[in-house]
Every structure is written in C-alpha cells, then in structure tokens.
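Batch job 17 of 40 flagged for manual review because the log was empty.
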Amino acid sequence: MLKSWRFWAFVLGAAVVLYCVLKVYGCQNRVQLARSGAWSETIDLPAGQRLISASWQDDGIEYLMRGRAANDPPQNSTLILKRQGVAFDGKAEFRER
C-alpha cells in the first residue's frame, strides 16, 4: 500500500534540509580543519593572473590577484597557517596558469 503524497513530500523535504545543513556545516568547518592540521587545499588561479597576497579569515581564505604580463612565468605560492607552539596547522597552495 502506498503512503500518501504528504508523507513522501515530508521525506523529500527532510532529505533536502539535511543535505543543506551538512553542506553549510562542511563549508564552515573547513577553517577549523585547517587550524587542526588536517586540511590543505590547492587553488588554481585563473589564467593570466598573479597572486598578490593571501590571508586566513574566520570563514575561509581571502586572496588578491592582478593581471600577469605575458612574459612573466607562472609561480606557485603556499600559505601556511601557524599558531603559537604548533609547527603546522593548515596549508593552501596557489597555482598560476
């Protein structure tokens, strides 16, 4: 016997809400993982862009880019998060194309 459409709408709605909560929690938890030393990320910069500066923020990494001259070779940069008394907490690698 099939359940009513309201039951299936509730199940689908609950699944969507659970998925959204887990996605938001995962995004917010990324910096905490970096600070615990269990996280690293590689960020590919858009073609023709050069990394100027990068910093850790409460909700992620902020970085500033500028255009790269045609004769400048691409560079790779690494941002390492360190806390006092801890050798390595987290790492972000920036790759220029």
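Reviewer: the log was empty due to a logging misconfiguration, but the result itself is present. Helices lie at 5-35. Unflagging and moving on to job 18.
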